[in-house]
Design brief:
411 residues, TIM Barrel, 37% helix, alpha/beta, 8 strands, 6-stranded parallel sheet, globular
Amino acid sequence: MSKMSLQEKLALLSDAAKYDASCASSGTSKRHSRDGSGLGTTEGSGICHAYAPDGRCISLLKILMTNFCIYDCAYCINRVSSNVERARFSVEEVVHLTTEFYRRNYIEGLFLSSGIIRSPDDTMADMVRIARTLREVHNFRGYIHLKTIPDAAPALIEEAGLHADRLSMNIELPTDTALKTYAPEKNPDEIRRAMGNVRLRKEELKAPTYRGRKAPKFAPAGQSTQVIVGADGANDRTILRSATTLYSSYKLKRVYYSAFSPIPDSTAKLPLIKPPLVREHRLYQADWLLRFYGFEAEEIAPDSGEGMLDLEVDPKLAWALANRAVFPVDVNRAGRDLLLRVPGFGTKSVGRILAARRNGALGYEDLRRIGASVRKAKPFITVRDWRPGGLTDAENLRARFAPPPEQLQLI
């Protein structure tokens, strides 16, 4: 086997990293090198942002350190039994790529994940060394997101948090039963223990000190996790319940949802379910409703839909259509919680509505100026100069918002 060039490794290991969902450097602390004392920034101009067709931000150098792996998770294309081409970066190669790509304005930082090679500790030690070298040798001040390994020694994960802006650990699947079935070498209790340790360490270092020294920053952009959607046949309500528990238990910044694509390998005995990327998108929308709009998983994915989200309309609109007795809402009298349930009203527009109506009753055009999506809200509200009449209960209301039917291809 001939030795791979750095470019060949990059092509292979950046493609392999596409299964890790991530976002750009939102939520981290502000660092920059405008004074000439370092390299990189987490803010400001000169950053090239690119987005994949499915909406993922790819403005980071997003790679696997290696796609070799000693584990045999049925849903993972890089599992040990998978017949894929393998490659591995050295620590120095990842550092070189990160600094050179940043100097060329290709990226704003690094998202680094890895298969497990030799052992969790050996792999995590190399990832920490990459982050440490970037920070301490190259004075790199850009964004670093490390996908950490729950089975690694706590000391290694703690050091990772001192260098990285964000840490993440994959919970992998929404239920312990599914994880034990499809990834028996992974321990859900161990994953939760490691996530809990990150939360506790972050809280400890945020507490005020009385020795006159500032505590070091620990993963200032917080921690996140990833749930694979569709590999185990779990419905959307189960996935959203799991996300709710994760947010409350570990104070996560984000739960990422990754649509599973079946692997063409007879050894992977998984449910024959291939959720379209629109399901992933709907889960992100539902996640937003859980976090900022006061919804519960049971409301968003009810029994009537077998616990699945409606793929044709967004989750808030689907809820409104199923609960028409709540509407129409009087925009000039309703409280914040009820206004947040109106389709077309976001958190910012609701805040503006509450502030503006102190000066007088709002009309239809006032809502438009405020920035609300009045087309979507129209059947569900009353204002000074608008009442929906029978529109709220119209049989064809859903059809007004659902996409038109498409002609199926015959060939």
